[in-house]
Write a structure and sequence with these properties.
Shape: globular
Order of helices and strands: EEEEEEEEEEE
Number of strands: 11
Distance between the termini: 37 Å
Number of helices: 0
Structural class: mainly beta
Length: 123
């Protein structure tokens, strides 16, 4: 599976960004997807995940009510809508594929990763 994340950039606090992650190489619609982020000097942390059917989603407490994950299986793409951005959201954001069939936030269990896209939120 190849994953290509895009949509990052520089935004002021309170602003919005929409990240996209395009997948290729396997049957995208069968697999759960996740978004993670990693700030300088910090470990990679879970942001959100979505089941293959979009029925189940999971969010980190830090982004609940501000971020929304969605997917379009026809386009092999998963999205991350980020609203009310804060400086502490600044990080490289990664999308990942999980083949286990379980919606979860453990990065060690994800099987394929994209290259990441930088999100910078200025105060």
């Amino acid at each position: 599976v190849q994953l290509q994340a895009s949509g990052g950039g520089l935004v002021q606090a309170g602003g919005s960004l929409r990240l996209s992650c395009a997948a290729s190489g396997r049957t995208f619609s069968r697999y759960n997807m996740g978004w993670f982020r990693q700030a300088p000097g910090k470990e990679r942390e879970f942001v959100t995940a979505i089941s293959w059917s979009s029925i189940t989603t999971q969010y980190a407490d830090s982004v609940k009510g501000r971020f929304t994950i969605s997917r379009d299986n026809a386009k092999n793409t998963v999205y991350l809508q980020m609203n009310s951005l804060k400086p502490e959201d600044t990080a490289v954001y990664y999308c990942a594929v999980d083949l286990s069939g379980v919606v979860h936030g453990n990065p060690d269990w994800y099987d394929y990763w994209g290259q990441g896209t930088q999100v910078t939120v200025s105060s």
